[in-house]
Amino acid sequence: MPTIKDVAEKAGVTVTTVSRVLNNRGYISELTRKKVKLAMEELNYQPNEIARSLSRKRSMMLGMIIPTIAHPFFSEMANAIENYAFSFGYKLLICNSRLEQTKEKEYIDMLKSNRVDGVIMGSHTLEIEEYFNLKKPIITFDRKIADIPYVSSDNYQGGRLAAELLIKKGCTSIAHICGDLSLDLLSNKRTEGFIDTLRRHHIEPVILQLETDSFDRSSYSSIFNSLFDNYTKFDGIFASSDIVAMNIIKYASARNISIPKDLKLIGYDDIAFAELSNPALTTIKQPIEEMSKLAVELLDKQINGEIVANEHTLPVTLIERAST
């Protein structure tokens, strides 16, 4: 079985250089990197991951806990984070919590036992102590948990931009559909920014909250039926996610309500499907790629012993399409 020394000799470099290529650490010219990888291929060299992990006291694995990868926003986020994590030399373990405390606790215990180097949290249902007991670097994604560093979009700015556009379009009777506001989430600032902006223009919106698991689309029907049964004069709606907004398009169509003629509609996230809906959805774009890259960079810095700031908020962008 070939060794790392064999690879170094065949590539004409030092063992240290081969180690740096394997661990994606330190500056290595692209030419040298190619020579090492070619030598590995020709020798059919397979690095011993367990030995590497023990020698550097790191597993080069990250954990990520999210509510559900079935939701397009989280699937796009997971894809971006995995891509950036891989570029840093990490592998990624993805866990779906479904916002269930038992599942989240078991996943945290699993990640701890698997000696992950750090964790990205896109879900939190447990007491703060559970996260600190991990004794691992943590970055939260659009969640604020005590003094743990987080990455988020500017939710308040997003709510403000949505309100300003509906006002600009002449809407005067406006509804907002959002998640459970009793939960302490950064996304609640979308609602705050939306309401504050409308009230400055003397408009009081109707606020309809989804159930605690706002990712469960089976729970939407009662809210939407209530919306269209009891409030027939709405001319503008801001939904707190694109998935919610696209479901509104379906319900409005079933009731012969024309979007945008009768009703202007805005979503939030700018998932890939937003421009494919009919009509194409106006939305507030979260910079998922930039947020994901920053989350991995901040986690890597913590893993390497650096201190990072707690708050990292990136700006959002209004993407106007046919629904307004």
From TrEMBL:
One of its GO terms (molecular function) is DNA binding. Pfam families: LacI, Peripla_BP_3. InterPro entries: HTH_LacI, LacI/GalR-like_sensor, Lambda_DNA-bd_dom_sf, Peripla_BP_I. Residues 2-56 form the HTH lacI-type domain. Keywords: DNA-binding, Repressor, Transcription, Transcription regulation. The keyword Ribonucleoprotein does not apply. Gene3D superfamilies: 3.40.50.2300, lambda repressor-like DNA-binding domains. This is LacI family DNA-binding transcriptional regulator.
